[in-house]
Design goal:
alpha/beta; 2 domains; 6-stranded mixed sheet
Length: 314
């Protein structure tokens, strides 16, 4: 089996796949993911594409306009972001508003699909590919709200979920490298930057041909290798931060445990002294009571209450 190293998909997104000559690669990937034939009309230029220093969330990797008019956002995230779900929400809302001109009816709102390829643990779940869409469930009848026949004709959509944005999340690092179907072949490539000879998913032949490292010029290859080094550096920084946080937490827990033991010993000694004094008082009170002294006199001598003295057995 021949396996050749190819360019990482995120690098290709930024540098190569914006060219119309390479649309077949993106079309193949999206067709396998969305389970429909995707035909890209253009790569959109918008404020959301521009890299700005004052708004780190106002940036996506690529905006695709598909033949049916829907807009597809493809974002690739290498470093951990706890608020990444909110980033998806923000990017989606921004793309929708950017594509609504003043005075347009709401039926012209563009259908937006987001595709997030993440190389870190996002949320909690056992799968590695997730699909989310909007549904309206009845609080009492537990039924799903559907479009009327007229609305289906007006919106040209079969369901409410087909109107609202759809979201796909591919958790690359959770994939077990076992390509069970053609979509898994793409996930394998996303994770390993390798294309096996037997892979036959849509767009894979074009990717095999066009995304081979040997196709890069000397300057591009140097820039690409620098990009890989930067990814390694960022990963090392993330690992260091994680290690230090876990170390500090473990150290604090151990110190807290040791301090707790010391405090427990101290409290035990003090409690023992206290209990010893009380037991001594009761013994003296018992002797005085056996000698026939009245409770009032015994209380004055020992400090015990009269009721406690009366309860003493002799």
């Amino acid at each position: 089996m021949n396996i050749k190293k190819h360019i990482r998909f995120d690098w290709a997104i930024k540098k190569l796949l914006r060219s119309k000559a390479n649309f077949d690669i993106l079309e193949g990937f999206l067709s396998e993911l969305l389970a429909e034939d995707i035909k890209i009309l253009e790569i959109l230029d918008s404020e959301t594409n521009k890299e700005t220093q004052d708004d780190k969330f106002d940036r996506v990797d690529i905006l695709v306009k598909e033949a049916s008019g829907q807009i597809i956002i493809i974002e690739i995230q290498n470093t951990r972001e706890l608020d990444y779900f909110l980033k998806i929400l923000y990017s989606t809302s921004k793309v929708i508003s950017e594509n609504m001109k003043e005075g347009m009816p709401y039926k012209e709102v563009k259908k937006v699909i987001t595709v997030s390829v993440v190389y870190f643990s996002l949320g909690q779940g056992a799968d590695y590919i997730y699909h989310g869409e909007t549904t309206f469930l009845g609080l009492h009848k537990k039924d799903t709200l559907e479009l009327s026949e007229k609305q289906k004709q007006i919106f040209n959509r079969p369901s409410i979920g087909a109107i609202f944005p759809n979201h796909y999340i591919i958790k690359v690092n959770d994939f077990d490298d076992n390509a069970r179907d053609t979509l898994d072949q793409w996930v394998y490539f996303l994770k390993n930057s390798e294309i096996k000879d037997e892979f036959n998913a849509k767009g894979m032949a074009a990717a095999r041909k066009k995304l081979n490292e040997i196709n890069l010029g000397e300057e591009e290859l140097r820039a690409y290798r620098h990009y890989l080094e930067q990814l390694h550096y960022e990963a090392s920084i993330a690992d260091t931060i994680k290690f230090e946080a876990e170390y500090d937490k473990r150290k604090a827990r151990e110190e807290g445990k040791e301090e707790g033991i010391k405090e427990g010993i101290k409290e035990g000694k003090e409690e023992g002294k206290k209990e010893g004094k009380e037991e001594g008082k009761r013994e003296i009170a018992g002797l005085l009571k056996a000698a026939g002294d009245p409770p009032e006199k015994i209380a004055a001598i020992t400090g015990l209450s009269i009721s406690a003295i009366e309860m003493l057995e002799i």
